[in-house]
Write a structure and sequence with these properties.
alpha/beta; seven-stranded mixed beta sheet; about 25% helix; globular; binds NADPH dihydro-nicotinamide-adenine-dinucleotide phosphate; oxidoreductase activity, acting on the CH-CH group of donors, NAD or NADP as acceptor; ADH_N_2; MDR_fam
């Protein structure tokens, strides 16, 4: 079985030499464990943070050990009660072809109900992040005008559509290519979208939301956050979900220059960590499952095929090569 190891800590943008694809023997599962053949694994922006040797909400990847992360696969041997060969499971040991997973860390998923890959995206971690970040953290209410950055990504594409489904007055998204902008407006039903590479975010946001915004869902940070603070209306709320614009920076970046506006407008900026919100999981799956079945909620997936292309998939995610969820597939 092959697995990806981190072999050196990236300084700035990760390079292929920071990683190695290594062989490891596959053993029968120990007591209480199952052996899973991974079919899809997730590559996510937060993994960049885990490549640094810093104290955070999640420990760094260890050098010369397999990296981990969300994955779905098929049980090929079981030494745990309740799991049989042929079951499909969601678990946390991605970045490898075969995973020996403790049964208590494996969740059965049904490929008949939804394609397996969706348990990593729209029905999984990124979908829940959008749902909890919008409805719980940002206290979204009907009639709000919502701006989301990283709007064509896994989280962002769901935030915008969920806001529309719950009666947003206007939904605006920003993304890094004209094709993505077209997808947001023509396929996902955003009211407006812009390519942040085509001009200052502040000006483009002002034009797209002349009456201001009530909610900002931040996936990007930097100039996007500053522009949003300028456009937020009185009592506006921002969910600070990610700041991908700075994950590869080597120096701390200055904050928004217009923070004083937070006072006069009585803004609330609040961070979100999806791990706090698994209590909403049942409600989330029920509501989002319904929207998916009715066709009201759409999702994108970008697949990179083959374990040997796992790191390329991750680097491609950081460069914006994905529309919707970026997934590494091991199905061929
Ligand atoms: P995405 O699917 O959104 O993929 C990342 C996207 O970021 C790329 O497609 C790219 O799109 C965009 N991007 C890359 N660099 C920049 C840049 N400099 N400026 C603007 N956009 C950039 O990933 P996810 O949906 O998984 O995650 C989105 C955000 O949410 C991330 O910041 C992530 O860290 C965060 N997150 C936070 C969680 C939490 O619990 N707090 C949980 C899950 C995700 P483009 O072409 O538009 O540039």
């Amino acid at each position: 079985s092959r697995e990806w190891h981190l072999v050196s800590r990236p300084h700035g943008w990760p390079v292929p030499a920071d990683f190695a694809l290594r062989e490891t023997p596959v053993a029968e599962p120990a007591e209480g464990r199952v052996l899973v053949r991974n079919l899809h694994f997730s590559v996510d922006p937060y993994m960049r943070g885990r490549m640094n040797e810093v104290k955070s909400y999640i420990p760094p990847f260890a050098l010369d050990h397999p990296m981990d992360g969300g994955a779905v696969g098929e049980v090929v041997a079981s030494n745990a009660e309740g799991f049989a060969v042929g079951d499909h499971v969601l678990h946390g040991l991605g970045w490898r072809e075969y995973a020996e997973v403790p049964a208590q860390h494996a969740t059965k998923v049904d490929p008949e109900l939804a394609p397996l890959s969706t348990y990593l995206g729209v029905l999984g971690m990124t979908g829940l992040t959008a749902y909890a970040g919008l409805f719980d953290v940002a206290s979204f209410k009907e009639g709000d005008a919502v701006f989301v950055s990283g709007a064509a990504g896994a989280v962002g594409s769901q935030v915008g559509q969920m806001a529309k489904l719950k009666g947003a007055s206007r939904v605006i998204g920003s993304a890094g290519s004209d094709e993505k902008v077209k997808w947001l407006v023509e396929e996902l039903g955003f009211d407006a979208a812009f390519n942040y590479k085509n001009g200052p975010v502040k000006d483009q946001l002002r034009e797209a939301a002349p009456d201001g915004i009530d909610v900002y869902f931040d996936n990007v940070g930097g100039d996007h956050l500053e522009a949003a603070i300028s456009s937020l209306n009185v009592h506006g709320r921002a969910t600070i979900c990610g700041m991908i614009a700075q994950y590869n920076d080597t120096e701390p970046v200055p904050g928004p220059r217009n923070m004083a506006m937070i006072i006069g407008k009585r803004l609330r900026l609040q961070g979100v960590l999806v791990g706090d919100h698994y209590g909403m999981q049942q409600q989330f799956v029920q509501e989002v499952g319904g929207w998916l079945r009715s066709g009201e909620l759409k999702y994108g997936e970008t697949f990179v095929e083959g374990i040997e292309n796992g790191v390329d998939g991750f680097l491609g995610l950081l460069r914006g090569e994905n529309t919707g969820k970026m997934i590494v597939s091991l199905t061929r």
